[in-house]
């Protein structure tokens, strides 16, 4: 019997995180908009019931927003990142190991817990997360990650599961797989879905029953392994997806102490570009970026050091995006009046670019353009030496001009923003 | 025009370096304090025992001055601690966040202010006890 694996996923995560600190958002439809307030990237159940779809442009749903009093919030990644930390801390005692898959979902290695009633165990996890963070979750359990993920989707969709679906139980597994659209199986891309559908494979169950040889002949290793995982045989799908490397860093000391933000940012931009280049050479994308800098700890001078960790959403290897996020962190952490001697950029949550979690509202054409730009940059820099082609980094420390009209405060990370309680 | 000179440090050395930093001493006489170094006092850590389940909030109003909690104070609210009568709690009353002491009187639970002129609230289905106050922070001057 293989080790049970669970996938825990936060329900309408961004909306739930907002509701934790704004009780007036409870019971009303809530939509969280993407950067620049462009599209709906999270919807509460009430908003889903009103037909708001993932990726709907906000300006196109203005009428419904008005008619139904939908609350639209700008995304507040500072809050979501901090609440994620709390969720993980609540889950931690319940698993041997945790693998963070995205900002709102994690795999749990339940080795050592097999003797327990795992459904009760999962309910205890849900209760703990709800208690500590107010965030509701669903849990899928299975002998493989693919099945755990599928169980999670089932637990979310069908209230009969009461938030926990254990797909180690074969009748339940069959029941779920027979009703699960093949294109929704994790790791099945749209091209693969089209191909298997031509063979008459429309459900996860049919995919499971597909001959392994046939799966292999269709090209991807991933598909063959998916078939195995759907049969309950761990086939390291995630491991083929996820590389051994968990993080990478580009950290340097300066020859001359730096006292000017623009200069520091110029260096950080280079490190971010370099880190992106490393990522792309390994075919990876990152989910989290840390920017750090500090003064010389041995000098007899005022000391300051700071680091800021930010989420990359969607996950990316795009150097320009890394620079943008690194700049946001650096601007936030910057203090005037110190001589900095070292800076760095670290990337974590690395997954294979091919299988990164997609956000539904991504502009595919734009992605392709950016990828081509990055490939061209790598080419030029490979041929003519590193940093031949770099983004213009003049005029940094500009005010961060992202449009975020309805962004909630940094409730949990900034003293000036903490929730107010009436006494 | 700015210029930055970069000295490359191999990636593998980065994590090691952080550890060495703390224990490296200058050439010459070793510091007699090197073995006895401790971290500076971190009041936040002392005040917030369970960071993952604790939330900082700011007090607005005077209904708890009798309990030593003033307008403008910062409080640490824990969601890991089970609320019991006698605790000071943050509660949602019809969706409004309020700070009161939880008390049992006549077999019912009440939210009780500790200053003159504020009403008692009975804990019913419109009241949710959100968390327990476990710490208080105030700065003077």
Task: Describe what this molecule looks like in 3D.
- The complex is a heterodimer of chains A (423) and B (141).
- The radius of gyration of chain A is 23 Å and the shape is globular.
- Chain A has helices spanning 13-21, 45-49, 62-68, 77-91, 118-133, 145-157, 170-178, 190-198, 204-208, 212-217, 221-230, 237-241, 261-281, 319-333, 364-384; strands at 5-10, 30-33, 40-43, 71-74, 97-102, 105-109, 137-142, 164-166, 247-258, 284-295, 305-316, 340-348, 351-352, 420-422.
- In chain A, 39% of the residues lie in helices and 21% in strands.
- The longest helix of chain A has 21 residues, at 261-281.
- In chain A, the strands form 3 sheets. Chain A has a 5-stranded mixed sheet with strand order 5-6-1-7-8.
- By secondary structure, chain B is mostly beta strands.
- Chain B has a domain at 5-9 and 50-137: Umud Fragment, subunit A (Ribbon).
- In chain B, a hairpin with a 2-residue loop joins strand 4 and strand 5.
- The model of chain B is unreliable at 17-22 (pLDDT under 50).
- Classes of the chains: A alpha+beta (423), B mainly beta (141).
- The interface between A and B is large, with 39 and 41 residues.
- Strand 9 of chain A pairs antiparallel with strand 1 (6-8) of chain B, so a sheet runs across the interface.
- Chain A: Belongs to the DNA polymerase type-Y family.
- Chain A: Pfam families: DUF4113 (PF13438), IMS (PF00817), IMS_C (PF11799).
- Chain A: Monomer.
Task: Briefly summarize what is shown.
Chain B: Keywords: Autocatalytic cleavage, DNA damage, DNA repair, Hydrolase, Nucleotidyltransferase, SOS response, Transferase. Chain B: This is Translesion error-prone DNA polymerase V autoproteolytic subunit. The complex is a heterodimer of chains A (423) and B (141). Chain A has 423 residues and is α+β, with helices and mostly antiparallel strands.
């Amino acid at each position: 019997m293989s080790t049970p694996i669970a996938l825990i996923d936060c329900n309408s995560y961004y909306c739930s995180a907002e509701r934790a600190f704004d009780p007036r958002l409870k019971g009303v439809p809530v939509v969280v908009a993407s950067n620049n307030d462009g599209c709906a990237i999270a919807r509460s159940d009430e908003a889903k019931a009103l037909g708001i779809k993932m990726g709907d442009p906000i300006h196109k749903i203005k009428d419904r927003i008005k008619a139904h009093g939908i609350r639209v919030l700008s995304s507040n990644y500072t809050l979501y990142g901090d609440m994620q930390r709390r969720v993980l801390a609540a889950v931690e005692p319940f698993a041997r190991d945790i693998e963070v898959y995205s900002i709102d979902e994690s795999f749990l290695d339940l080795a050592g817990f097999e003797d327990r009633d795992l459904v009760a165990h999962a309910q205890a996890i849900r209760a703990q997360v709800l208690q500590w963070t107010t965030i509701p979750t669903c849990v899928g359990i299975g002998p493989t990650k693919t099945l755990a993920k599928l169980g999670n989707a089932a637990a979310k969709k069908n209230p009969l599961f009461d938030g926990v679906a254990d797909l180690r139980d074969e009748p339940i597994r069959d029941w779920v797989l027979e009703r699960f659209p093949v294109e929704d199986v994790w790791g099945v891309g749209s091209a693969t879905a089209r191909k298997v559908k031509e063979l008459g494979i429309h459900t996860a169950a049919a995919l499971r029953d597909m001959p392994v040889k046939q799966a292999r002949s269709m090209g991807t290793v991933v598909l063959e392994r998916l078939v195995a995982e759907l049969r309950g045989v761990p086939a390291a799908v995630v491991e083929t997806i996820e590389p051994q490397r968990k993080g990478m860093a580009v950290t340097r000391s300066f020859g001359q102490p730096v006292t000017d933000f623009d200069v520091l940012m110029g260096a950080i931009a280079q490190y971010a570009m370099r880190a992106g280049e490393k990522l792309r050479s390994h075919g990876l994308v990152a989910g989290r970026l840390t920017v750090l800098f500090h003064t010389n700890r041995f000098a007899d001078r005022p000391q300051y050091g700071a680091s800021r960790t930010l989420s990359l959403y969607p996950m990316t290897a795009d150097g320009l995006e890394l620079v943008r996020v690194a700049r946001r962190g650096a601007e936030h952490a910057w203090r005037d009046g110190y001589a900095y001697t070292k800076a760095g950029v670290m990337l974590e949550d690395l997954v294979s670019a091919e299988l990164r979690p997609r956000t539904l509202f991504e502009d595919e054409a734009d992605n392709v353009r950016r990828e081509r730009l990055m490939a061209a940059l790598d080419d030029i820099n490979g041929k003519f030496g590193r940093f031949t082609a770099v983004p213009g980094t003049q005029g940094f420390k500009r005010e961060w001009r992202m449009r975020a009209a309805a962004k909630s405060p940094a409730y949990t990370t900034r003293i000036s923003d903490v929730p107010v309680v009436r006494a | 025009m700015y210029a930055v000179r970069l000295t490359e440090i191999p990636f593998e050395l980065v994590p090691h370096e952080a550890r060495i930093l703390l224990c490296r001493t200058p050439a010459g006489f070793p510091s007699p304090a090197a073995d006895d170094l401790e971290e500076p006092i971190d009041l936040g850590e002392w005040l917030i025992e369970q960071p993952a389940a604790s939330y900082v909030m700011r007090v607005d109003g005077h209904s708890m001055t009798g309990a030593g909690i003033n307008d403008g104070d910062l409080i640490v609210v824990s969601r890991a601690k089970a609320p019991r009568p006698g605790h000071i709690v943050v509660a949602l009353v019809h969706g409004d966040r309020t700070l009161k002491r939880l008390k049992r009187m006549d077999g019912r639970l009440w939210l009780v202010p500790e200053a003159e002129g504020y009403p008692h609230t009975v804990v019913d289905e419109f009241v949710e006890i959100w968390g327990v106050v476990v710490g208080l922070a105030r700065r003077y001057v």
